[in-house]
Specification:
Shape: elongated
Mean pLDDT: 85
Low-confidence stretches: 10-16, 28-38
Strand content: 15-25%
Distance between the termini: 119 Å
Number of strands: 19
């Protein structure tokens, strides 16, 4: 009985007073002290109007005793017969706490917060915490089946993961982590933005489930557990100290995961390419929105290129390794498909100069590369920019070009006909086979980025900034040369052809404002062409 009095009944002698004294003396006011003094026992009165404690000491000669209290500052203590060694708590629930009289509710609470504690927790004789905390074990002792079963538990998936990372570190924080990469990207199937998939534990006790702070948002596809005994059980987003601790933990976990991906990319190129096709969009999102991990993320990027086989992808390190002597720029160009890019005019000068160009197929690609800006001191530049430092293609045999005065006259007329649709019309030094090309004069956003911003602005009912465009014409192309004389013969038809040349160039760039106007113009050109034939 005296042991019960000392440890439960009298605050003057119990851990409660020691807890209060140490809490008052502590500068950090660390509520982890609760675990050291048993003050958590008194939380029973949050839901119970009366608590009965039946206990018997491990000492053979000790008798059982009963402690009863309503939590109002007093208690009753007396003997209890027929008790075996151990302690039993009986809670008489308050009227507003009857939800805790439901076995399923209790099981859910146990599974959510205490599923991985070492000792068994039973409800009505059934053990509830049946899943092992395998992240605390040596990875050499965990079987493949255990890893896969645990993945299914934390992710709710039915298949096996694509990747698994299990690691333990002691500095700068003590961390046990088990992270998984699924095989499927559910956002691709229209299920909306995924919720964070990693939960935080401290000493196997859940602190936050599916926490949004443990990894950056662009790693939301990762599933698993992070357990750190350095985290207080009552960690808060509101205190500066706890925010700093979480930021440190986030940096460590993110850095270790990206290092793992770099290792996997080096170890198995084909498997990493499978990962990239499934989850690469998230890494590009990271580059487009986050400056913190850009060095590692840049090495993880993969793109098709003008020198890769269809379906094969190259990394930025591979591109840089095979750059031509004196080349200081990494070039890329956007297009919906490889075929669309290679059928357009933008690669002509690069083919002639034997310069490799990366192919981007999604707007986020251009945002990511533009945000990256440089890789190993090499600027990343879109091939649709007006000012590029690349050699002009050599003159082709049998292809005569318009004279300087003729091209000056023709480009001035082009600008007069096209008006505000373009900022400038000029002779091109980069075209080989195409009659014209549309280029970005500002060099701030690529064409795909501008189209994306315009679509977003229209959706929001706002005006989008429109970049200045320059139309370059090929003075050696038969269509351009014939247009010079057509002006004198039929200026109306020549004007229609000039408009159509611009629209064709816009189609090649992926930016046609209103195709219906273009279709009507094509019909008019066809009518006039047939009239001349007849």
């Amino acid at each position: 009985e005296q042991e019960v009095v000392d440890n439960i009944g009298t605050i003057a002698h119990s851990g409660s007073k020691s807890f209060i004294q140490q809490l008052a003396a502590s500068e950090q006011k660390d509520l982890n002290l609760i675990g050291q003094f048993g003050v958590g026992f008194y939380s029973a009165f949050m839901v119970a109007k009366k608590v009965r404690l039946l206990t018997r000491s491990y000492l053979p000669e000790a008798a059982g005793c009963e402690w009863v209290s309503e939590g109002l500052g007093s208690y009753e203590l007396g003997p209890a017969e027929g008790l075996s060694r151990g302690t039993k708590l009986i809670l008489e629930l308050k009227d507003d706490a009857h939800e805790f009289n439901n076995a399923q509710r209790i099981k859910r609470i146990i599974r959510q917060y205490s599923n991985f504690v070492s000792f068994p927790i039973k409800v009505n004789g059934e053990q509830v915490n049946t899943v092992q905390a395998i992240w605390t074990r040596n990875k050499n002792e965990v079987t493949e089946e255990e890893y896969n079963d645990f993945y299914k538990f934390v992710s709710g998936a039915y298949d096996e993961p694509m990747y698994r990372l299990h690691f333990t570190i002691d500095a700068p924080l003590a961390i046990n982590a088990l992270l998984y990469v699924p095989k499927q990207n559910m956002e691709r199937f229209g299920f909306g933005r995924m919720e964070p998939g990693v939960s935080i534990y401290s000493r196997k006790i859940l602190i936050r489930q599916h926490d949004e702070d443990i990894l950056p948002g662009w790693l939301r596809f990762v599933k698993g557990i992070v357990d750190s005994e350095d985290l207080p059980l009552n960690i808060s987003r509101e205190t500066t100290q706890d925010r700093a601790l979480m930021n440190k933990l986030r940096r460590v976990i993110t850095g270790r995961f990206l290092k793992f991906l770099l290792e996997q990319a080096e170890k198995d190129h084909d498997k990493y390419l499978e990962f990239w096709k499934t989850f690469g969009v998230f890494l590009k999102e990271g580059l487009a929105t986050d400056f913190t991990d850009r060095d590692d993320l840049s090495k993880l990027l993969r793109f098709e290129s003008s020198k890769s086989e269809p379906g094969k992808m190259v990394s930025l390190p591979e591109y840089v390794d095979r750059m031509k002597p004196g080349q200081e720029v990494i070039y890329f160009i956007f297009g919906p498909t490889r075929a669309a890019i290679e059928a357009g005019p933008y690669l002509e000068a690069f083919r002639a100069a034997d310069i490799e160009v990366l192919y981007t197929h999604e707007p986020v690609d251009d945002f990511a590369l533009s945000n990256l800006g440089q890789y190993e001191g090499k600027n990343l530049v879109s091939a649709d920019q007006a000012e590029l430092d690349i050699p002009a293609p050599p003159p082709q045999e049998g292809k005569e070009s318009l004279e300087f005065a003729q091209i000056q006259e023709l480009t001035a007329w082009f600008k007069e006909v096209l008006g505000e649709r373009v900022s400038e019309v000029r002779e091109s030094s980069r075209l080989v086979d195409s009659p014209a090309i549309i280029l970005d004069l500002d060099g701030i956003m690529t064409g795909s980025m501008q189209r994306f911003m315009m679509a977003m602005s229209e959706e929001m009912g706002e005006m989008a900034p429109v970049g200045r465009k320059v139309l370059e014409v090929n003075p050696s192309h038969p269509l351009i040369k014939r247009l010079l004389s057509l002006r004198q013969e039929d200026e109306v038809l020549a004007g229609l052809v000039a408009e159509q040349i611009l629209d064709n160039a816009l189609i090649a760039s992926g930016a046609v404002d209103d195709p219906r106007l273009m279709v009507d113009r094509i019909y008019r050109i066809m009518e006039q062409a047939l009239d001349k034939k007849s």
